[in-house]
Design a protein that fits this description.
alpha/beta, 5-stranded parallel sheet, elongated
């Protein structure tokens, strides 16, 4: 099989990484006197690396993260009561494998959403799937799905990712239908899927958002016993970050 035919086969089989590096690896193999096995190994490695990168890009795109939060940018020096050890334990991703929920509680601007998104991105880099929705998007999209007759299909879509992030729970009150939707989603996900919730409200204040006491009990029961809970304390990190940016600008 000649080079042209081999490349055509790679294109047909969608071996894009292998195809992109074919000429380079063949030339390098001839220059370095590689064996046939070494040439094949190098092409397989090129394909593997290509699929790793494109897989991460696809998972991150599908997750719909709103910002650019990364764990590498998490400021451990900020005073917010969350310890380096607690973050380290989250980075082992065992909570995802165990299907445990995470609940990040604390005042606005303290870094809850940043950590939730950064963990979601980190999970995507480690072959997990994720989806990010704030509570308003969840309510509106679920309502639209109900109105169009596609509720069950939409609920199945939200039940599928390894990690579902629901940001800013408590930003608006839920009526009975919306509370029921949230309960059903958590029931779908309690069998091995992790849900991350950020909120300003401790669990014992969720009655301010979910007025139906029966649904409230069901929702908190699905989360309370198995969840990893982090309470963020301290001042707004947005002010700290702004101050650091000003100090950096002054030094330049």
């Amino acid at each position: 099989m000649g080079n042209v035919q081999a490349k055509n086969r790679m294109q047909e089989m969608k071996l894009i990484g292998m195809l992109a590096h074919y000429d380079e690896k063949i030339a390098l193999g001839q220059k370095e006197s590689w064996s046939f096995t070494e040439v094949v190994d190098s092409l397989v490695q090129a394909e593997y690396e290509y699929r790793e990168v494109t897989g991460i890009e696809r998972r991150v795109k599908n997750a719909r993260f709103p910002k650019g939060s990364h764990m590498e940018d998490f400021d451990y020096t900020a005073s917010r009561s969350v310890t380096r050890q607690e973050i380290k334990e989250l980075l082992n991703l065992k909570w995802i494998d165990q299907g445990r929920p995470l609940i990040f509680m604390g005042q606005t601007g303290i870094g809850k959403s940043f950590l939730a998104e950064a963990l979601g991105r980190y999970a995507c880099r480690n072959k997990k799937t994720a989806l990010f929705l704030d509570i308003t998007q969840f309510i509106e999209l679920t309502g639209q799905a109900r109105a169009s007759g596609g509720y069950l299909k939409f609920r199945a879509k939200l039940a599928k990712p390894d990690v579902l992030i629901i940001d800013d729970f408590g930003a608006r009150k839920l009526n009975s239908t919306e509370s029921q939707d949230l309960k059903e989603l958590l029931e779908d996900r309690c069998m091995g899927k992790s849900t991350v919730i950020t909120t300003q409200l401790p669990l014992d204040h969720w009655s301010e958002v979910v007025s139906d006491s029966v649904l409230l009990d069901a929702i908190t029961d699905l989360l309370d016993h198995s969840a990893v809970k982090l309470m963020f304390k301290g001042g707004s990190y947005r002010k700290v970050k702004a101050k650091k940016l000003d100090e950096t600008a002054e030094k330049k």
